[in-house]
Design brief:
By secondary structure, this protein is α/β, with parallel strands linked by helices. It contains 18 helices and 10 strands. The strands form 2 sheets. The chain has a 6-stranded mixed β-sheet with strand order 6-7-8-3-9-10, with helices on both faces. The chain has a 4-stranded antiparallel β-sheet with strand order 2-1-4-5, covered by helices on one side. It is elongated.
């Protein structure tokens, strides 16, 4: 996995600078404020928890005037009170500013996810990379900001205590530096070890979480109760848990060792050692004042914390860099089918031509499409038919330029679609798929596929729902077309059956101004009678538009000007419905079998 790659210092600096720019764009000034807050907090902590104790004890022992002592103490207490207000303000500011950072970073991730080639979603490695980017991007922003704050705090606190300790008893600096030395020597290795552990764990957790979703999402509820799939999923869950246990077993001892090493170095050498040395110098050697004794013990621990914190901060930046590298790998993934703002718009539709088009999926050695050639002209109705797996849906993805052909070319008005502006080209199509997805927004927004609808757009959506034959159902809803789809966020939300959801999706076609309509199995969830009604409504609403519809049910083919029958990714028959029946080939055989299946009981189907 990419997470195992060791990053040099130069790359680490570049990664941190890259993410710092993202944070600055999301919330300008936040990193500067974090650094300033860390410096002020360290200075006030030094005054309130180290210097004030030493000053009071030594001043009393030296016979300093009480009024002078009180004034100094009052000033320090004033700084501490101010520090409390600054701390409260920082907490309020941080929570509001980090939301802006999260919004900006999420925007980058989601925009990339929307742009990236559809083929990437068929790669488990890509899905793991996407998961890391989406989950780590936000948490890493928080962590990086806190690292800036704490590193500045540790530097200011460490320098203050070191300066004080150097003036009192420099020998304590040796004790305080031991944890820092350990951090420098083994901390980088610990980070690599921990990162590898987390990345391996996350990959397995993605499979475990998928199983968890199948148990609580309504999409799987019926199958889980009526079949043994729950046992299959439970076994997959058990396997994932076993893998997590194995990973924990492999890395657990090492993680405990690092934690033990750091704890023992600090507790035994720094804390206990500094106390014993301070007592010796105060009570036996008598070369240290009482105030200095307290400061020596306190400062030794503060210096150890500070130095170790500085070392930890450096290592945290190194650790941030590894996760940022995963984030950048996703954000910088090359989009092969990308928008070119300088490319020309396709212009009003006149013709769509496929010339010797072929395509093979990256994970397969068998062509999904091979040597496909035909032309669709303005106003024509074209049916693409064939059994499941014949290549029909792959053809749709190529027409919409979700994939690019591996062979041949596709021309819009005689121009290669690769040379046209991508967004404008895709906007030329209105589409509805076999398994349409409705979003948890209003019905009207689902139809128009946009938000902030105008009154005119809502009227358009209502007419589209009427053409799709679903307006009666929508009118019965609590808020009509303004009702939210699903009840996940609204108890009064609309819940649709499969056929109803498909009609809502078909309404999108009616609402679209696109020149070309592509329907990929749009009536698969409807019964034959509803299907015929849907096609009648659809062709009436699409009058004057070019329609390409894909189906393995041939009842729709009678509406077509021309039919192309696919098998094993190739066109094996073409012509009008009547012409193909006359040929009495595979199309005719498929037609008669389906017609017989639809015939009422006791009737013999259509004549041959």
């Amino acid at each position: 996995m990419g997470g195992k790659k060791k990053l040099n210092i130069r790359r680490t600096v570049k990664n941190i600078a890259y993410f710092a720019r993202l944070i600055r764009r999301g919330a300008p000034g936040m990193l500067v404020f974090a650094a300033a807050y860390g410096a002020f907090s360290a200075f006030s902590a030094f005054l309130g928890y180290t210097y004030i104790l030493m000053y009071v004890l030594n001043a009393i022992q030296a016979g300093v005037n009480v009024r002078e002592i009180l004034i100094t103490v009052a000033v320090i207490l004033g700084v501490l009170v101010l520090s409390g207000f600054v701390n409260l303000f920082w907490e309020m500011y941080f929570e509001s500013a980090i939301i802006k950072v999260e919004k900006y970073i999420n925007g980058l991730v989601y925009k990339k996810a929307a742009e990236i080639d559809l083929a990437c979603y068929e790669s488990p490695e890509f899905l793991d990379t996407y998961l890391k980017a989406s989950s780590e991007g936000i948490s890493r922003a928080r962590s990086l900001i806190m690292s800036v704050q704490y590193s500045v705090y540790d530097i200011v606190n460490g320098v203050s205590n070191i300066a004080l300790m150097a003036a009192i008893a420099p020998v304590f600096l040796l004790l305080a530096g031991v944890p820092f030395l350990c951090t420098v020597l083994v901390g980088r290795k610990r980070n690599r070890f921990r990162h590898d552990y987390q990345m391996r764990t996350r990959e397995v957790e993605r499979r475990r979480d998928y199983v968890r979703r199948t148990f609580y999402l309504g999409d799987f509820a019926k199958e889980m109760r009526l079949t043994s799939m729950w046992k299959v999923m439970f076994r997959r869950m058990s396997t994932a848990v076993d893998e997590l246990f194995a990973i924990q077993k492999k890395y657990g001892v090492g993680l405990m060792f690092f934690a033990y090493l750091y704890d023992q170095l600090f507790d035994v050498i720094v804390s206990t050692g500094s106390k014993l040395l301070a007592l010796y110098k105060t009570l036996i050697a008598k070369d240290m004042l009482v105030g200095d004794c307290f400061v020596a013990v306190n400062s030794a621990e503060n210096i150890a914390y500070g130095l170790n914190g500085i070392g930890e901060s450096l290592l945290e930046f190194d650790e941030h860099s590894m996760y940022i590298e995963d984030f950048r790998r996703f954000i910088e993934t090359e989009v092969k089918i990308a928008e070119n703002e300088e490319a020309p718009d396709p212009g009003p539709f006149e013709s769509l031509t496929l010339r010797n088009v072929g395509y093979t999926y990256p994970s397969s050695d068998k062509s999904a499409l091979s040597d496909v050639s035909f032309t669709v002209k303005k106003g024509e109705r074209i049916a693409i038919v064939g059994h499941n797996g014949a290549g029909k849906s792959t053809l749709v993805k190529l027409l919409l330029r979700l994939y690019d052909p591996g062979e041949g070319e596709i021309l819009w008005n005689g121009k290669d679609i690769k040379e046209l502006r991508l967004g404008s080209y895709r906007a030329g199509f209105a589409t509805v798929f076999q398994d349409p997805k409705l979003f948890s927004v209003s019905v009207a927004e689902n139809v128009m596929q946009k938000g902030d609808l105008t009154a005119e757009e809502k009227v358009t959506a209502q007419k589209a729902l009427e053409n799709a034959g679903i307006a009666g159902k929508i009118d019965e809803l609590s808020k009509g077309a303004d009702t939210t789809v699903t009840r996940e966020f609204d108890s009064d939300g609309a819940v649709f059956s499969g056929g109803e959801a498909q009609k809502v999706a078909v309404a999108r076609v009616f609402a679209s101004p696109a020149d070309v309509v592509i329907m990929d199995e749009p009536t698969s969830a409807l019964d034959p009678i509803a299907e015929q009604e849907m096609y009648s409504n659809m062709f009436r609403a699409c009058e004057g538009k070019t329609v390409i519809y894909i189906s393995h049910r041939l009842s729709s083919a009678v509406f077509a000007d021309r039919v192309y029958m696919f098998e094993h990714g190739k066109i094996i028959e073409q012509g009008s419905h009547a012409r193909l029946l006359e040929l009495d080939g595979k199309y005719a055989d498929m037609w008669h079998k389906q017609a017989d299946a639809y015939a009422p009981a006791g009737e013999g189907g259509t004549e041959r």
